[in-house]
Amino acid sequence: MTATAQATQTTPTTPTTPMRTTTTASARPDQPPAVRRPLVNPTYLRLELRRLLRNRRTLIFSVLLPVVFVLSFSGAQSDPQGKAYVAINFAVYGAMVAAAVTGAAVSIDRSSGWSRQLRLTPLRPTSQVVTKVLTALVLAALPVVVVLGVGALMGGRLSAGEWLGAAAAAWLGAIPFAGLGLAVGYLVPAETAMQVIGAGMSLLAMVGGLFVPLSVFGTTMRHLAALTPAWGPSVLARYSFAHEASVGAGVTSIIVWGVLFAAAAAWLFRRDTARV
Amino acid sequence: MSTASIARTPVPDPGTASASVPALVLRGLTQRFGNVTAVDGLDLTVQPGEVVAFLGPNGAGKTSTLDMVLGLTRPTAGMVQVCGTTPRDAVDRGWISAVMQTGGLLKDLTVAETVELTASLFASHQPLDAVMERAGIAGIAERRVGKCSGGEQQRLRFAMALLSDPRLLVLDEPTTGMDVEGRRAFWGAIQADAQKGRTVIFATHYLEEADAYADRVVLVSRGRVVADGTAAQVRAMSSGRTVRATWPGATPAEVDRLGLLDGVESVSLTGSTVTAHTTDSDALARHLLTATPCRDLEVTARGLEDTFLALTQPTTFPQEQR
């Protein structure tokens, strides 16, 4: 190390600077506290929605596919209520896919380094998650409206109240799936996340009684189906005419799954934020 | 290894004005990942208005250090203070911002949307048009980020970093992957900005960048500061110049005798060209021009490159890890 030795033997000149006594130096008294940003930032929400709507795959899986299903399956139903039944099932399916895809899109934020970039702004990580959930809710409304609309055009007949009840169940019942999507998005890389969601949603829709009626399941299978996450929105959306389970049971299912998925997402989110 | 420190501009008397609060203070900063030590007790103070190059080979701990400065990771030990406060608080106030090496952009947003979104996250920000103009992206505002070239994306990151009008701008190897023209344009923008008094810290392993754009060069190796001063001072630390001259009809014996002069470290003769490394080039030059028939004498400082190699590659080459 001749070069260093030759340089100069002076001791470091810098420590004349005042040292704060702790590592967590607080803001200087003459500085106002940092402004707390609101939890929901309208610009952020708007651009998140625009991003998702630009993504063709999201729209194909959450809107186009359910519409195609309705068009092909309601022809087989002869009575107006049967046609409405088909439309409601696929509206529930579309809404849960839309919510899950929106949540899982957080994996793109992670892999692209966008989450990291956001950490160089005053945005709270919690705010990022809340915005994702709100985006999921807005996006989930799209298949509900479109698919039920197509169902009505195809000859499905229900009272206005019944349509609204079904729409509300499909829409609000999608909330837990936003949590599931987020959890998947925090767990696996972007390429895998969408595949997991695609396959997982079809499976859950199947066992939840959205693709085939619950009545075709055996007794054991029907009991198991009631323990899966799509079952709640599924029975609630059809409640007005099918009465497969009580409203309380459906609501409980949605809440329990909602809490479970939210907890999983929150845990994975914390793990992820600590690491970024 | 002891840290060599060169006396710099005196540290202003603290506590008199708020301008004297250092832009950055690092004390004993340490970062370990498992049993790998990426940053090893690093000390550094940066005064407002300085443009500092953080120079070192890959794996020297530059990015790990900057991540802690930005509050992206927590130090294993030691202290970080940005503008007198914690990194997170400085980020919240928009006092510190960064241009990262790669990533951090969403391909499906346009350039203008990205700037708008980033701006909306701050309590107050500079006018968007002015910032985009300054960063040189006003002409590509409506382009999707995914369709932008590497240089354009980097200028977008620069625009995003300027939005909050930060006191301290951190650049982590900002010109990696950019062509010569893009690199020049980028540094032109940074320099214009730094002249207005912004403190800039940039990590680089391009010596010429450190030499050309920094007031101060901090050389890091294996997570520690090994040299600190102006580019000229750091270069001088490898102390010595190369003296070259044409000596018609020189004999090896005559040339060897030059080695007896004060400060001469090595001498060689190739054809009629004498090359000597010395710490006292004046004395050698005087001798060659007065006591020998030498002509075409040339004195060159050892490049920053040589200093860099001398200081960052000690006896055993470290296992590069980060």
From TrEMBL, chain A:
Chain residue ranges for the region called Disordered: 1-37
Domain of life: Bacteria
Membrane topology summary: Multi-pass membrane protein
Cellular component, GO annotation: ATP-binding cassette (ABC) transporter complex
One GO molecular-function entry: ABC-type transporter activity
Annotated localization: Membrane
Annotated transmembrane regions: 59-78, 84-108, 129-154, 166-188, 200-225, 245-269
Every ABC-2 type transporter transmembrane domain range: 48-229
Coiled-coil boundaries: none
Keyword Membrane: yes
Annotated keywords: Antibiotic resistance, Membrane, Transmembrane, Transmembrane helix
Pfam families on file: ABC2_membrane
Compositionally biased residues, Low complexity: 1-29
Gene Ontology BP terms: response to antibiotic
Keyword Ribonucleoprotein annotated: no
Name of the protein in question: ABC-2 type transport system permease protein
Source taxonomy: Bacteria, Bacillati, Actinomycetota, Actinomycetes, Kineosporiales
From TrEMBL, chain B:
Pfam families, sorted: ABC_tran (PF00005)
Domain ABC transporter: 24-247
Membrane topology, as annotated: Peripheral membrane protein
Keywords, comma-separated and alphabetical: Antibiotic resistance, ATP-binding, Nucleotide-binding, Transport
GO MF, any single term: ATP binding
Taxonomy, superkingdom: Bacteria
Keyword Transport listed: yes
GO biological process: response to antibiotic
A Gene Ontology cellular-component term: plasma membrane
Cell compartment(s), UniProt: Cell membrane
InterPro entries for the chain: AAA+_ATPase, ABC_transporter-like_ATP-bd, ABC_transporter-like_CS, ABC_transporter_ATP-binding, P-loop_NTPase
Keyword flag Nucleotide-binding: yes
Name the UniProt record assigns to this protein: ABC-2 type transport system ATP-binding protein
Organism: Quadrisphaera granulorum
